[in-house]
Amino acid sequence: MKSLVFFNNKGGVGKTTLACNVVSFLNTQKGKRTLLIDADPQCNATQSILSDETCEDIYLNENPEYETIFSCLSPLSEGEPTANTAINPILGSRNRFLTDIIPGHPGMSIIEDKLSDAWAGLRARDIGGYRVTNWCNELLGTLNSRYDLVVFDVGPSLGALNRSVILSCDFIVTPFGCDIFSLLGIKNISGWIQQWQKQYEKSIEDTKEDQPEVFRKYNIIAETNDRFRFAGYSVQQYVTRSFKTGRRPVKSYDRIMKQIPGTVNEAMAFLMPNQLDRTDLELGHIPNLYSLIPMAQSAKSPIHELSSADGLVGSQYTQVKSYAKLISSLCDKQLTNIRESP
């Protein structure tokens, strides 16, 4: 099983829309058993995939039939050193994305302080700090036999919650907006990861020397060299115009798009898998889809499955077909980059 996280330190770039549509395509078109975990306290992926009735049942009626990512982490809020990993995802048969999902929960923001305290404990070589920080690694261990891929959607924060998720994931995928703040965001991510990776590795090395039995007893990550590798990026929501040679980005977007490959290569070179070069990292460029986004959100449907029953008319059919073709190519590149056969 491989795990990856969709992450950028810049909101509003279409990250959640891409993550939800990718997992749906992987499940329905690429034959990959894929689970989506919504680890963003804003729960946008959950709202995109689950019906309003189901969301009401989860959050307003607190139906015990449904478990969320907060169900996994709630023991930490009560002072326990380990998470509840016996979580049952909501099955894909109950949504149009045909994707199993562990829903998000606004309470995840409350956990942030606990995870920050655990990180301080980890740096002081406290075993409880290691265990709490590695909650996500423990959860992934219980899912290993059930899925080919686990995909996390997270918020844009450079905080303790996202740090604990990224630490446990095999790969990072970064959706860019076509703006200068996305370029700054990838630089922020680079510096942030380098800082805490160095802190984690130093603490781990000291503990290996003094308390080696810890790594036999608990599910704690002992090496980070093969973790959170950078598996590529997409460029979202750029605007095109028609020219005699075809459609291409308008000049203001084109300038940014030309800077992205070099910026990514410079910022994330230390996380690139050995078998990839910078051209492999470009997963795809997704133009502004205008009315298709709100239509898909209203229908609780992946974009590639929109139909006349959802209100699709005229040239929108061509847009949907083009999007499906683009997402298919993006999924193939992503699978290749994480060493999975498309």
TrEMBL record:
Gene3D superfamilies: P-loop containing nucleotide triphosphate hydrolases. It comes from Thiohalocapsa halophila. This is AAA domain-containing protein. CDD domains: ParAB_family. The lineage of its organism: Bacteria, Pseudomonadati, Pseudomonadota, Gammaproteobacteria, Chromatiales. InterPro entries: AAA_dom, DNA_Partitioning_ATPase, P-loop_NTPase. It comes from the Bacteria. Residues 1-204 form the AAA domain.
